[in-house]
Write a structure and sequence with these properties.
- This is C-type cytochrome.
- It comes from Thiothrix winogradskyi.
- The chain is mainly alpha-helical and 392 residues long.
- The chain has 2 domains: 207 residues, Cytochrome c-like domain (Cytochrome Bc1 Complex, Chain D, domain 2, Orthogonal Bundle), CATH 1.10.760.10; 165 residues, Cytochrome Bc1 Complex, Chain D, domain 2.
- It contains 14 helices and 2 strands; from the N terminus they run ααααααααααβααβαα.
- Strands 1-2 form a two-stranded antiparallel ribbon.
- α6 crosses α9, α10 packs across α14 and α13 crosses α14.
- It binds heme C (HEC) (2 copies).
- The site of one heme C has 27 residues, from α4, α5 and α9.
Length: 392
């Protein structure tokens, strides 16, 4: 009822303010679509797999970890090196650069906790499990698991907080010998060193490692989205310029963007082949289906706090590589003006180029099996769509 009343009011208001401009007159169907893109539709974040998800002390600790450059091989790389607060927590580069140059573009993190899958190929099913990967990635933080855990449990700032949150954990001393670099993800020598450690010790290290991911995730999930002009359209119907309104109309209509970029995140959280994968080099979602199932830090693993039967996303994960070959996660478009360059490999510098790509990649002669609908837009329409994207 309330919703209907809002709609009627909005229709009336927009009708009035737009009398000089046909673009501002919305149909009820258009209004309902626009309404479906607003933050009001965003359910609260829950992550049963992270028992620290609502813990204020874990949040503060996670924030410290996120900005701490000491958590890296050269002492210069923090999560915030690539996820910069003034760029919606992205970095403005085509692909990430830290200890080495990576292959993927750094996504923004505002609102990220609302996603089902993490990374462009969705190879992680929780934020805490995601956070573990950059720490051990040789191109990013470049630490091994043992080095990281030893550092944290010996550090005057972190050690007491870990004790307080995790209770009865080993100390750096009782973890015996290694600050030797050892990890099941590392190079051959590191892998061998890991295998030579007693099982019990490996378990302890994994537990502290997983908890570190959970603290980081608690902080990352506090990075909320701020309302934009679309979200407040009901209160301020005239706030969209004619060009932005025309762009909004295209987005939900003729340009068919809403087919994939739907809901409050402007992403339907699926994986789609839009012709951006590179056969033999990056097949996107198809390449990670197996690792997702066997990941020891997934929702079903022993370090997850969620009851196994609640891990439905993993249970219903497709087994068909073919179905998701060349598919990447439909990214959120919130704050997209601040997150250039675009696409999983940062191939496009501007939003004009992205839209240009959409008009070309969908043509029958270039389509090559991708999921894109055929659309045609003239130069003005492209500018209008860009204007709308800049509102988000
Ligand atoms: C060297 C730059 C770099 C560093 C350092 C880094 N990240 Fe990232 N981050 C990336 C890139 C690139 C991706 C996407 C990688 C991919 O999809 O394969 C990413 C993806 C993510 C995602 C998933 C976003 C999404 O939409 O799926 C989260 C969350 C995240 N990083 C958090 C962190 C945290 C927490 C840390 C610190 C422990 C961290 N990152 C360190 C570059 C970095
Ligand atoms: C069939 C599903 C689909 C449709 C329809 C679609 N997109 Fe996308 N969009 C995607 C996928 C998948 C990606 C990520 C591709 C990649 O990274 O390789 C993407 C990426 C983007 C990006 C880059 C975001 C970033 O952070 O890098 C923008 C901008 C974008 N889309 C806008 C649009 C607009 C505007 C339309 C309508 C003209 C549209 N999309 C239609 C699936 C779709």
């Amino acid at each position: 009822m309330k919703y209907l009343a809002c709609l009627l009011l909005l229709t009336a208001l927009l009708g009035m303010s737009g009398s000089h401009n046909t673009n501002r007159q919305w149909t009820a169907a258009e209004l309902a679509k626009l309404q479906s893109l607003t933050l009001a539709n965003l359910p609260p974040v829950t992550d049963p797999s992270n028992r620290f998800a609502q813990h204020p002390q874990a949040l503060a600790l996670g924030r410290d970890l996120f900005f701490d450059r000491r958590l890296s091989r050269n002492g210069k790389i923090a999560c915030a090196t690539c996820h910069q607060p003034n760029k919606a927590f992205s970095d403005g580069k085509p692909v990430a650069v830290a200890l080495a140059t990576g292959t993927r573009n750094t996504p923004a993190l505002l609102g990220v906790a609302h996603q089902d899958w993490f990374f462009w190929d969705g190879r992680k099913d929780s934020l805490w499990s995601q956070a573990l990967e950059p720490l051990e990635n040789p191109a990013e933080h470049g630490l091994t698991r043992t080095e990281l855990v030893h550092f944290l449990l010996a550090d005057a700032h972190y050690q007491p907080q870990y004790q307080a949150l995790l209770g009865n954990i080993a100390t750096a001393d009782t973890l015996q010998q290694p600050p030797t670099a050892a990890s099941p993800q590392g190079d051959l020598a590191q892998l061998q060193a890991w295998k030579q450690m007693p099982q019990a010790q490996r378990e302890q290290i994994d537990a502290v490692f997983a908890a570190t991911g959970k603290f980081l995730a608690t902080y990352v999930s506090s990075l909320n989205l701020a309302p934009n002009k679309l979200d407040t359209l009901t209160q301020h119907p005239a706030a969209l310029t004619p060009s932005e309104s025309a762009g909004a109309k295209l987005f939900i209509g003729k340009a068919q963007c809403i087919l994939c970029h739907s809901g409050a995140l402007l992403s339907n959280q699926t994986f789609q082949n839009i012709g951006t994968g590179i056969p033999g080099k990056d097949s996107g979602r198809a390449a990670v289906l197996d690792t997702l199932r066997t990941d020891r830090f997934n929702c079903q693993g022993k370090h997850s706090d969620a009851p196994v039967e609640t891990c439905t996303e993993l249970q219903f994960l497709t087994r068909s590589r073919h179905a998701v070959s060349g598919a990447f996660k439909v990214p959120s478009l919130r704050n997209v003006a601040q997150t250039a360059p675009y696409f999983h490999d940062g191939r496009f510098a501007t939003l004009e180029q992205v839209i240009d790509y959409y008009t070309q990649a969908a043509q029958p002669n270039t389509k090559d099996g991708n999921d894109l609908p055929l659309i045609q837009l003239d130069a003005t329409e492209i500018q209008q769509l860009v204007a709308f994207l800049n509102v988000l």
